[in-house]
Specification:
There is one protein chain. The protein has about 160 residues and is mainly alpha-helical. The protein folds into two domains: about 70 residues, no CATH class; about 60 residues. The protein is built from seven helices and no strands. It is flat, with a radius of gyration of 23 Å.
Length: about 160
């Protein structure tokens, strides 16, 4: 299930399949009917749903443009937010993108090795390791998005080297 492709009410609908609406209402001190309304399409889409906390978080991120909100939410579930790469050129070649991942991985390992050389990792070194790790995840996400977008199909005739007899 790809959450990014789902509207907030659809995510809530899925959540209510696994978590009791009564439990959520009781824990949040809200009415049961409001919890169910969160799982319905919004009124402007001819539904009778109410703006949910997910809608509000999305609005807050959009209005502020601040990804720390998403990072905060991710940390509440022991996760970490990583931005998707921006402006991926269409039709990138498979081998150069694969090489980029390998290079980023090697850079991260070099950062770790340098930091661990004295058998200690300082807070500053940990920040550098985190930065390399985030860069590796971003480059890899770009590769995955390109693969999902069909960028790595068979080479076109003009891209195939001519065979020499």
């Amino acid at each position: 299930m790809v959450l990014a492709a789902m509207d907030a009410h659809e995510v809530m609908k899925e959540l209510l399949k696994r978590t009791s609406a009564k439990q959520i209402a009781a824990e949040l001190n809200l009415s049961l009917s409001l919890i169910y309304k969160w799982a319905e399409p919004p009124e402007d889409d001819s539904g009778s749903g109410a703006s949910s906390p997910l809608d509000r978080v999305g609005q807050l991120i959009r209005v502020t443009g601040d990804a720390r909100i998403a990072q905060w939410v991710c940390e509440r579930t022991n996760g970490f937010f990583i931005r998707n790469p921006q402006d991926l050129p269409a039709g990138q070649a498979l081998i150069p993108m694969t090489n980029d991942i390998v290079k980023e991985f090697a850079d991260m390992l070099a950062t770790i090795a340098t930091s661990a050389a004295d058998n200690t990792i300082t807070k500053d070194e940990a920040k550098k390791i985190r930065a390399r790790w985030e860069e590796l995840k971003t480059v890899t996400e770009g590769f995955v998005q390109s693969a999902e977008g069909g960028s790595f199909g068979p080479p076109k005739e003009k891209d195939v080297p001519e065979k020499k007899d």
